[in-house]
Design goal:
The longest helix is centred in the first third of the chain and has 18 residues. The chain has an eight-stranded mixed beta sheet, sandwiched between helices. With 195 residues, the protein is α+β, with helices and mostly antiparallel strands. β7 and β8 form a beta hairpin. The radius of gyration is 16 Å and the shape is globular. It has five helices and eight strands.
Length: 195
């Protein structure tokens, strides 16, 4: 897929580029990022370059991961890495994707993550035709859960042994967001379970 550029009032979301390597490397020195994500620790500059040049580039080219670097509009400072992962179910009839993100320590608490995620979810629904967005986070990741809740994700429970992290299997929280949650239509009708 050709990489789009998404904009919000305060942010620009675009594909990460080699010039972003220093900022990506610096952000991933925060121990909270590898604590809750698959980001390696310790995180080297080579990790940053590989993520930008190989993982993200291949993801866009092969339609396996659509990752954006999120930057402030005024200063161009890196805010976060965010995107759609596990796109194997993006094709019809499933039309599903998973939203994933982390935010740089000095950019937290400003509402940027919700603002950026709203743009990615809108793009997923309107441009890609996604009919179910999923969110997973290791159980206990309250910050990630707070973002998902602010976006309107319905919490679906705890999935046992969903995450493999640092050589152990861990439980994960799960949630979903449907186009109808945002008053958008879906290609397929949704028939919820009637209790």
């Amino acid at each position: 897929m050709e990489t789009p550029v998404l904009t919000t009032k305060r942010l620009v979301l675009r594909a990460l580029e080699p010039r972003d390597g220093d900022a990506l490397h610096a952000a991933c020195q925060d121990p909270e990022i590898p604590r809750w994500t698959s980001v390696p620790s310790p995180y080297s500059r080579e990790h940053a370059d590989h993520f930008i040049d190989v993982v993200c580039a291949d993801g866009w080219r092969d339609d396996t991961m659509y990752n954006f670097g999120v930057f402030t509009r005024d200063e161009g400072a890196l805010v976060s890495s965010m995107g759609l992962v596990r796109l194997q179910h993006l094709a019809t009839p499933q039309r599903q994707a998973e939203l994933g993100y982390w935010t740089a320590k000095h950019q937290r608490g400003k509402g940027y993550t919700v603002e950026a995620a709203r743009a990615v979810c809108t793009w997923a629904f309107d441009a890609l035709g996604v009919e179910r967005l999923e969110w997973f986070a290791e159980a206990g990741n309250e910050a990630s859960r707070a973002v998902a809740l602010k976006l309107g994700f319905a919490m679906e429970g705890t999935v046992r042994s969903r995450v493999v992290h640092e050589g152990t299997r861990r439980d994960a929280w799960s949630g979903s967001l449907l186009p109808s949650d945002w008053d958008r239509p879906s290609q397929l009708p949704y028939l919820p379970y009637a209790k």
